[in-house]
Amino acid sequence: MSESLRVEHLTIRHGERVLVDDVSFTLRPGRPFTLLGRSGAGKSLTLQAIMGSLPPSLSMEGKIWLGEHCLSALSAAERQALWGRTLAMLPQEPWRALDPTRRAGLQIRDVFRWVRGWRRHEAKAGTDALLERLALSAHQLKYPAELSGGMCQRITVAMAQAADSTLLLADEPSKGLDESMKQEVASRLLGACGEDRLLLTITHDVALAEVLGGEIGILREGKLVECGEASQRLANPTHDYTRTLLRAEPRHWPAWHKPPARAPWLIRAEQVSHRIGDQSLFERVNLTLSAGQVTALTGPSGGGKTTLGNLVTGFRPLQCGVVTRQSGLGDLQIQKLYQDPPAAFIACLPLAVQFADLQQRHNIDSAAVHHWLEQLGLPPDLLANTPEQVSGGELQRLALARAMLLKPKVLFADEATSRLDPVSQLQVMTLLKQCVERDGLSLLLVSHDPHLVCHMADSVVTVGSRR
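RE: above sequence
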């Protein structure tokens, strides 16, 4: 296998608006290529153009070549015939690539059976061997709903490896993963690339781009502003935009020094335990959420951080333990930012309609909506789109705007910045910090980023252990 992928003068438009502007680059076998950039820069659209899955409302110019075959000249049916066999994609929301009604192991077995054409007993043996190699055997019989976001990500990586496609497209593969799992996923992606396969990764995660190595392209507002050897471009960037991205990494944030204060408690959790089947997720956890304080939940992917947060904030019923709320703290005053924001929106309904419904139900004026959009760096005309037409980072900020419009006293932020580029991360965390200090917001923060936790948290609870 010695085919290269060539993207030549790719331009993507929505009406008169240019979303991707004259982008060209080449992928070579065994040589990873990473597109790095802010949310809404055009990274996912570039992947969709290669895959042949751009929405009908967008138009595309330019050519995409795989070896001597012009992919962009193929019909939709011809391009779809390549999916799984020649072109494979790891989506930004791994749960959307999984069948909720089938166990994880069976879904991997299906890839061996129907994509690779293996016989039933061969597919079973291949699945068992792959899961054992990836240390995922214990999760073979679980349904997607029983897996954490990070574990779903690992299952989709396993499915991609089973497919053994010529070109693997990875959309934000490190989202929501702890540092050790990021290293593991990067290693698996590089293994899938090998010496004769093609790997294109899009990410806002500078650390992942460093680990993957190879070549890198920096996208800014649809334009490729810098391209070349990853190690050189990240160590000695030539463009101001690249330098801004690197400086905004959480490890470079200034320390947040806040004077100690006796804050009133809002929620107390005592001796909270939780089991899944015969497996204990965590036992006898105690924590207190106080006004004007940030409490961080950390620990390995799949360790139970989201589950504990859901139990404490009332989004999931308790099995064991006691959770007490301050008198007068109602359900509406406790809001949640979901790890996968598409799950919190109606996919086919314009965002403007969804925000208008919120305004009508809770008597919120339009000035408040525009205030939060402006605070989060979002243009008002973004609401004309459906959730599927905006980037993951933009959708996450819209979810935050919607939650803050309800003036919560407690905000459960489950990996609230995992979809955001470093610049947007800093912007959102600074804004939340202001709400904590000024308005007495109690922030329950789930994060895998030790630098972000160190910067934000007044107290830290570590949940779970590697299994």
